[in-house]
Amino acid sequence: MEPTVHADRVADYLAELRPHLDDLGPSERAEVLDELTDALREVAAEDDRPLREVLGPPADYVAAYRASAGLETHPSQSRGGLQTQVATMSDTVRAQPWWPHVRALAELLRPAWWTLRGGVLAVLLGWILLGPLPPVIASLPGLLFITVAVAVSMMVGDGRRLSRGLRVAFTGVNVLAALAVLPMINVATSGGSSGWDAGYQAGLDEAGAMGAGQLAKPSGELVTNIHPYTRDGEPLEDVLLFDGSGQPLRVVPEGETLVAGANNDIEIDYDRDADGQPITNLYPLRQFVLEYDDATGDETRRPRTAPAVVLPPALRTDASEAPASETAADAAPAAAPSEP
Amino acid sequence: VESQLLKGVLDVAVLAVLERRDSYGYDVVRQLREAGLTQVGDASVYGTLRRLFKLGALKTYVVPSDEGPHRKYYGLNAVGRDQLESGRKTWQAFVGAMSVVLEGGTT
Question: Are A108 and B70 in contact (CB under 8 A)?
Fold first, then answer.
């Protein structure tokens, strides 16, 4: 007979039998149902008749099982619609030919789960009490704590020896550990960073991405402005620059802010074209330094002056001539950036 | 009558079957029936196996099978062997006593 036909017959009988086990605890009921499913499957494989005919009414079958198993019978508790649906689905799954394989695998993996559960709960508790993950894991007391938690988890096992009252809490702990596994693995594989660390890393990544879009000197220092000069040392203004592919040469991607230091940003006041669009490759850029005072919360805005530059000696026609402006804050020399 | 009698001796009967070889539930049922206990019920045997296991008299393990479903095997441990030995003595004493009663005081 086809396994699916067996499965249907087994599922039908289980559905009738299950309500007579409702008074058992969830874990015990699951165990009993697994055992009875095995038993029914064996009978179904050997006898083509309906199981009710072979084994008698499910109520009698369960009564005989419970009497010999020493399971006291309690008044049956009525189930709600959802519970009944879940129970029916559960019966159908249990009756499938592949279910015993899945269950056997689950049995084999139980000690691994107990170990994982202990570790996850220890790290979770350490995280809640002490903060980020690395201090919990990377310290001797932390490792000892995890070891003890794993040992306790192994001893508790499937909670069979716990009292009925404790089993509810135990189920909650299991669910918590199961829910925490994936996020914890995610955090662990991303370098064990805490929320703050992750935020800091994200900031660094963002800064890196921003830097990647900006012009940079070979040293890695970002170019914040370009100051062109004639060979005679005369500063030029309103110079449009383009790169080797003919694209406007920009020192900062559109929409990005230049950061000059811990407490100041550089604001760029672009000239506008006839359509009102900023001309982003017109140099030198007109810039302002915004400074924040942490103590007072005040913000000041001052023009960013051109830096002092030194022209190549061979180009100097008159050694007494001084180069252009002197008050700059920008360390960038007048060297034009290399092509991208 | 047989089923009533079985209730009192099912524990020791199941232990005796498992003493010969480790078996899964349905195999225990089959062996008991083949031995002549035709009235033994599947459910009673499975229930007995569960109770004996809970009492610590049995070990259990799952045997993978390529052809059919994995099976949960039961076998005796030291506690089970002690219990079987004790049950045997009790049964033999009981049979002896019943023989005296049924056969009019002769053994």
Answer: no
Tell me, what DSSP letter sits at residue A268?
E
Rounded CA-CA distance A178/B50 in Å is: 29
Of B45, B51, B70, the CB nearest to A100: B70
A197 vs B102: CA distance, rounded Å = 87
Q: Which residues of B touch A (CB under 8 A)?
A: 7, 10, 24-26, 41-48, 50-51, 54, 62, 64, 68-72
Low-confidence ranges of chain A (pLDDT < 50): 1, 76-78, 192-196, 207-212, 319-340
Q: Looking at residue B48, what is its pLDDT?
A: 95
Look at the pTM and tell me if it is higher than 0.80.
no
Could you tell me where the DSSP H helices lie in chain A? 3-17, 26-46, 51-55, 58-69, 81-95, 99-130, 133-137, 140-156, 164-189, 195-213
Mutate: best of B9, B10, B24, B26, partner A, most A CBs <10 A? B26
**Pairwise CB contact (< 8 Å): B51 & A100:** no
Three-point CA angle A48, A49, A50, nearest 5°: 120
pLDDT of A132:
61
Q: Which of A32, A45, A101 sits opposite B70 (nearest CB)?
A: A101
| Model confidence pLDDT, tens digit, residues A55-84 | 988 989 999 999 999 887 655 444 556 666
Q: Which helix (H) or strand (E) holds B13?
A: helix B2-20
- Of B41, B50, B69, which is closest to A69 when you measure between CB atoms? B50
ipTM over 0.90: no
